[in-house]
Amino acid sequence: MKKNLFLILFGVTIIVFASIRIASNNTIYYYTTTEANYLATTSNERIKLGGFVVSDSVKKENLGITKFEITDGNVTMQINFDGFIPDLFQDNMGVILDGYFDDGIFYSDDMLVKHDNEYISEDGEVYNVENYKK
Amino acid sequence: MISSIGIILTWFGFLNLIILFISSNKNLFQTLVRVNLLIHFLLFCILEIALFLDDFSLYYIANHSAASTPPLYKFASLWGSLDGSILLWNLVLSIYFYLYIKFYRASVELYDIKIFASILLFFSGFTIFSSSPFSGCIQLASIGCQDFTLLPFQDLVTSESGRGPNPLLQNHPLMAIHPPILYLGYIGLVLPFVIATSELFNKHKDENWIKIAERATYFPWVFLTAGISLGAAWSYEVLGWGGYWAWDPVENVSFIPWLLATAFLHSSKTQIKEQTLINWNYVLACLMFLSVIFGTFITRSGVLISVHAFSNGNIGTYLLIGLFIFSFLFIFIGIRNIEYFKTSNKVENLLGRSGFFVANNIVLSASALIVLIGTIYPIFYESFFSRQLTIGRSFYDILIGPLLLILVYLMIFSTKISRVNLDFKTWLIGYQNELNVSLLISIILTFYFRASYKFVLTIFGSVLLVIIIGKNIVKRYKKTKLQGSYWTGQISHLGIGIFTIGLILNVTQSFSNELIISTGDIVNFGDKEFIILPPYEEIKEEKNVINLPIEFEDQEKNATLNIFKNSSQQAISSPAVFRSIESDTYVTIKVIDDDKFKLIFRENYGIFILWLGLGISSASFLTRMRK
Known about the structure:
The structure holds 2 protein chains of 2 kinds.
Chain A: H1 2-25, E1 27-32, H2 33-36, E2 47-53, E3 59-60, E4 65-71, E5 76-82, E6 94-102, E7 105-112
Parallel strand pairs in A: 1-2, 5-7
Antiparallel strand pairs in A: 2-4, 2-6, 3-4, 4-5, 6-7
Chain B: H1 2-22, H2 29-52, H3 59-64, H4 71-77, H5 82-104, H6 111-129, E1 136-140, E2 145-149, H7 174-188, H8 190-201, H9 209-238, H10 249-274, H11 278-300, H12 315-336, H13 338-342, H14 353-385, E3 389-391, H15 393-411, H16 424-430, H17 432-449, H18 453-480, H19 485-509, E4 511-518, E5 522-525, E6 528-532, E7 536-539, E8 543-552, E9 555-564, E10 571-574, E11 576-578, E12 583-593, E13 596-605, H20 607-618
Antiparallel strand pairs in B: 1-2, 4-13, 5-6, 6-8, 7-8, 8-9, 9-10, 11-12, 12-13
Helix pairs in contact in B: 1-2, 1-6, 2-5, 5-6, 5-7, 6-8, 7-9, 8-9, 8-11, 9-10, 9-20, 10-11, 10-14, 11-12, 14-15, 15-18, 17-18, 18-19, 19-20
């Protein structure tokens, strides 16, 4: 019985260790624009980038490519979005974008806006990117 | 009015459960369990009636339904959000309580009744003390309701229109079937927990508890299999991303109990037939239910970012307390029975039944552990390093993929398994033809698809599995009529074999392309030709639908973009799917820009085969109908 218990613990340890190793190599991080600032020119791995849409920055180009800027109040970044834009999308709204940097511009094809059961209050609820929920 | 009736009836239900919990009258409990079922059924009906009457003085209805919601989705709104889903949860628990005393009860003591009653007390306590779907609205929001009361006979305010359910939940009829089926499976795993803990709590335990627990696990397992499959089908048919399984936390927490239940269905056999693994069976029987509560905690407490997660205040803490209480019960009873566990026989034949089932259990519980780690890793990471992340799909591909393959190879031997060791030489000679045929098929398929070694290994194993079991079934059908638990296993294995063939085809062969088109264009994708017809818009009460008809051979199907009006105005792109046995062509609209469309074409291989396999596994219950 003791031998079995030892074997089980040993197995569990190996699995936990291996999973965490592999998990840490397969993560997609959420960044605010400030945090992502240093990445913009150095890396092109896929990340999730959150921020608020800067007023009057949204420009529609041909065939659904939309350019706009997002900010966390500190650093502003240029976004090149090629994907489906929800109707809800508008100035000053919090979004999370899935994509990568190339030459300081963030290329994204997937956007999350708040869409759970709760409502977005019309008087402009304050969003906090850190606690953002899909 | 309805609010007050509902709340008072909830109180009666609670009172009834308290009596059930404290009473030691051995004749009374049958009646009380029936009354309990009746009350929960009435509660369910009352909320449905209120939903259909559009009674917006109820907080829940004002916020999760609307007058314009179509009837089917009004009906389904009952479980569309947290408070209502707990009502369904309690109803299902009550149904199982009733079924338990009717079919599965062996004990003469009342421990089982008390444990079951305390579980139900725990969950219905939430609707009394924290939030109830019957709570009345006392303060309006701009749309829907802002604040609620948990007391009856208050002055309620009625909002003019409801907010409507989450648009994702009113887009496909599967949404009305999937949650109840899944609940029947998920919550049914309470039965083995109650049976194991109450029997082992009893000094004069019935050695047959494992048999009863096995029987009681099987039907929830079938519902869980069917429920998970339906959820995957819904994801494929509605969400338009082309896949069926995203390793989303909510999917994961339904998969963990499934893995554990599958492990238990096997390991219980060793105890029934050879009195081995008694302690392990006790652990599994309890872990299934604990993983259910844990899963609910993960997904309902708002600790995770997920498509399904309902965000809500204090249910997290509440469930965490429950998890501690029931874990304590599990450990306490486990420690009391150390002597009993020592009576367990040793596993002697490593190539016999016990040996194979131990291997199966190691693989299945390792998978459960890996999925668990993948699910909670982001939570821990965020609390230690205060940074959010998600785990990529490749994590599961790397870890779970090979384990599934091992299971397939273990199942190949399942036709011939017995108490004594399997003789490999005789086995190889006996199945020579089957081996050759599947080798031939895998070689042909490998050249046809120009596939990799993963494909070859998987396809060889699963084709061999399907052939061996298929032959076994055909050969012995007349004699056995496929009744009994041996055949339950065989048919489930056949289903999993077929499923694996579909899965590996899907994972390795599918391809996709993004195309920009205008109306009237002819699109060539793969070797197929599609004609894009002029789009038209439908304006419905609850949504605007842009339909883009696509013609392929003689079929015409619509790729649609659904834009919902009365909620968060989310747009959902639903696919046009052209099916065939070998592969589906799956077309979704990505962007509409005046008269031009950007479409995604996907060739999804093996989808039909995959559903067929899961269907066969779920249909394995037919082998247990006649008894």
